[in-house]
Design brief:
The structure is a single chain. By secondary structure, the chain is an alpha/beta fold. The protein is built from 4 helices and 5 strands; from the N terminus they run E-E-E-H-E-H-E-H-H. A 5-stranded mixed sheet has the order 3-2-1-4-5, sandwiched between helices. Strand 1 and strand 2 form a beta hairpin. Helix 3 packs across helix 4. It is globular. The model has no long low-confidence stretch (mean pLDDT 90).
């Protein structure tokens, strides 16, 4: 089974993948006009069509600290719903609290420069989102 992980931001969407269902790896970052989610959507459809056709998409779900779904989480849930409807590919939401911070801490720990971190932080967050999902569903 092929998996894709998505970390949707306001100007970027980090993408990760797993061909095995065990290990997530970074793929790329899609950049789009600020909060133009239609543009992001179109770029994702092109990616799925030309580069990688997943069996399952795992999308980051940015819950608030207390676990509530704020505006951003609601936007991600709607994006996921439309993505599933348009592609026919199942989309699962994965709690993404702390994934960007964890990714940032990891990249700092390996002494990566700020400039390089900025280029790949969204991919790394997408890796964590997908890896958390895979780890939680290992035995299912």
């Amino acid at each position: 089974m092929k998996y894709i992980g998505l970390d949707l931001g306001s100007v970027t969407c980090g993408i990760s993948k797993s061909d095995t269902g065990f290990i997530a790896q970074p793929v790329k970052t899609i950049r789009f006009t600020s909060e133009d989610y239609d543009e992001c959507f179109d770029k994702l459809l092109e990616f799925f069509d030309k580069e990688y056709k997943p069996d399952l998409i795992v999308m980051g779900y940015p819950l608030l600290e207390n676990g509530d779904a704020g505006v951003k989480a609601q936007l991600c849930a709607e994006f996921a719903r439309v993505l599933q409807e348009e592609t026919g590919i199942k989309v699962e939401l994965q709690d993404e609290r702390y994934t960007t911070k964890d990714s940032q801490d990891f990249l700092i720990s390996i002494d990566m420069s700020r400039k390089k971190r900025k280029k790949i932080i969204d991919q790394q967050a997408a890796v964590r989102i997908l890896q958390y999902y895979l780890d939680a569903h290992k035995n299912k």
